[in-house]
Design brief:
There is one protein chain. The chain has about 400 residues and is an alpha/beta fold. The protein contains 16 helices and 17 strands. It has 2 domains: about 170 residues, Rossmann fold (3-Layer(aba) Sandwich); about 210 residues, Phosphoglycerate kinase, N-terminal domain (Rossmann fold, 3-Layer(aba) Sandwich), CATH 3.40.50.1260. About 35% of the residues lie in helices and about 15% in strands. The strands form 4 sheets. Strands 5-6-4-1-7-8 form a 6-stranded parallel beta sheet, with helices on both faces. The protein is elongated. The chain starts with 12 loop residues before the first strand and ends with a helix. About 50% of the residues are buried.
C-alpha cells in the first residue's frame, strides 16, 4: 500500500497536490468544504517544519470557472490563519525561484496546473513522468504528497507523474477518504447495509448497484435516478417537462439497463411511493406515485418515502450515501435528504456520506459532522471506490511505495 505523511522525515520541502476546485462568482473562488479539509492537512505538515508548495486545479480550459488561483490563495489564508504566497506561474523561472526560496513553515501556491499543456492529457504515469512539467519542477522539492483524493481517478500529470520521480506519500485527506470509501469493499458488517442513491446521473449509479450487490442489502433511490427507475416500474414520471433536460437523454441511453437492473435487484430496490413538487401557492405539495401523471418537475421524495428510508437507515449496521434525494438547497425540498441524514446521525452505524455537494447539506441544516463516520468531499472518485474500480493516483502512490 502507499506511504502516508507519518512516514515523512520532518523539515522537508514538499510538493503537495490538493483539490480546492471551487464555485466561482464574478471571477473569484468561493469558499467550500475542500479548503477546510486541505488546510487541516497543510497545517499538519507545517507542524513538522515542512515548507509546503501547493499544486491545485480550477475548472477546465474554456469554461467559466477556469480562472487563476490567486483568489484561492486568499481563501486558503483565511483557513490557515497565515500568509499564503502566490505566484502566477507553475514551473517557469518565477515559480522555481519562489520554490527555492521557501522556508520551513511557509506555504506557496503555484498557478492553476490546468494552465500547463502537460497537465490534462490522459496518459500513462510513465509518460507524464517524462513531461517538461514534472521533470522541471521535481528537482526543486524533496518529496511529493498527494492529498487530492477527489481527483484520484484522473490520469493527469500532477497526480500520477510526480510519484514516479519523487518519494511519494498520501496526504491526510487522501488516506482518510481512501480508507472510508473503500470500506464497502474491504469490511464485513454484522447487520444490514443500506445504500442511499440520488442525484442526477443514472450512468454513475447503475454500475454501483450492479457491482456492490454482494455487500449491500437494500438501495433507497431518489433524485433523478429514482424517478427514472419509477418510470421503468411503469409510473408516469421520469421524463422531461417544463424545458428540463435531465431525463429523456438518460432514458434513451440507459433504459434497457435500468429495466434489467430493476428486474434483477427489484427485491432490494426501494423506490419512492410519493414525490414532492412546488404547489400552486408556492409551497411544497406532495403526490402519491400510484396513478400519478407528470405535469411538473418533482424536486424531492415525499414525506412517506422519507420516513420509510429513515426507518431502513435506523436498522442498518452501515449506510453509504451517494447523491441527494431532492433539491436540498431549497428548504422546501430538503425533507428527504435531511430526514435520511438525521437518521444516520441518530444511529450507531458505520456511515459514509458523499457525492458532489451532498455533504454540504450537513452544515446547511445544522447537523454535526462528528455524528457521521466519514463525510466525503469526493464525487467521481467516491463512485469509483464504491464500485471497486482502481484509482490511477492511488495506483501511482502504491507503485512509488
Amino acid at each position: 500500500m502507499f506511504n502516508t505523511c507519518s512516514d515523512l522525515e520532518p523539515g522537508q520541502r514538499l510538493l503537495v497536490r490538493v483539490d480546492i476546485n471551487a464555485p466561482v462568482e464574478d471571477g473569484v473562488a468561493q469558499d467550500n468544504r475542500r479548503f477546510e479539509r486541505h488546510a487541516d492537512s497543510i497545517r499538519q505538515l507545517l507542524a513538522d517544519d515542512h515548507a509546503v508548495v501547493v499544486l491545485a486545479h480550477q475548472g477546465r480550459p474554456g469554461g467559466d470557472s477556469f480562472i487563476s488561483l490567486e483568489s484561492h490563495a486568499e481563501v486558503l489564508e483565511g483557513h490557515l490563519d497565515q500568509s499564503v504566497q502566490f505566484v502566477p506561474d507553475t514551473y517557469g523561472e518565477d515559480a522555481l525561484e519562489a520554490v527555492d526560496s521557501l522556508e520551513s513553515g511557509e506555504v506557496l501556491l503555484l498557478e492553476n496546473v490546468r494552465m500547463c499543456d502537460d497537465e490534462l492529457p490522459e496518459k500513462p504515469p510513465a509518460e507524464h513522468a517524462e513531461s517538461e512539467f514534472v521533470q522541471t519542477l521535481s528537482p526543486h522539492v524533496d518529496a511529493y504528497v498527494n492529498d487530492a483524493y477527489s481527483a484520484a481517478h484522473r490520469a493527469h500529470a500532477s497526480l500520477v507523474g510526480f510519484p514516479l520521480v519523487l518519494e511519494a506519500y498520501a496526504g491526510p485527506v487522501m488516506a482518510a477518504e481512501y480508507t472510508a470509501n473503500s470500506a464497502i469493499q474491504d469490511r464485513e458488517f454484522d447487520g444490514p447495509v443500506t445504500m442511499v442513491l440520488g442525484g442526477t446521473k443514472a450512468e454513475d449509479l447503475i454500475p454501483v448497484i450492479e457491482q456492490v450487490d454482494d455487500t449491500v442489502d437494500r438501495f433507497c433511490l431518489g433524485g433523478i435516478v429514482g424517478e427514472l427507475f419509477l418510470r421503468a416500474a411503469g409510473h408516469d414520471v421520469g421524463y422531461d417537462v417544463d424545458g428540463t433536460e435531465f431525463f429523456d437523454h438518460q432514458w434513451d441511453d440507459h433504459a434497457d439497463t435500468i429495466e434489467s437492473v430493476l428486474e434483477e435487484y427489484g427485491d432490494r430496490l426501494h423506490l419512492a411511493t410519493d414525490l414532492a413538487c412546488e404547489g400552486d401557492d408556492g409551497g411544497r405539495a406532495e403526490t402519491d406515485v400510484e396513478g400519478i401523471e407528470k405535469d411538473t418537475s418533482y424536486l424531492d421524495v415525499g414525506s412517506e418515502t422519507a420516513d420509510a428510508y429513515g426507518d431502513l437507515v435506523r436498522e442498518s449496521d452501515a449506510v453509504f450515501v451517494k447523491g441527494a434525494l431532492g433539491v436540498f438547497e431549497d428548504e422546501r425540498f430538503a425533507h428527504g435528504t435531511v430526514t435520511v441524514l438525521e437518521a444516520i446521525a441518530d444511529t450507531d452505524c458505520f456511515s459514509v456520506v458523499g457525492g458532489g455537494d451532498t455533504s454540504r447539506a450537513i452544515g446547511l441544516y445544522g447537523l454535526d459532522e462528528a455524528d457521521f463516520g466519514h463525510v466525503s468531499i469526493a464525487g467521481g472518485a467516491y463512485v469509483r471506490a464504491l464500485t471497486g474500480d482502481s484509482l490511477v493516483a492511488i495506483d501511482a502512490l502504491t507503485s512509488s511505495a
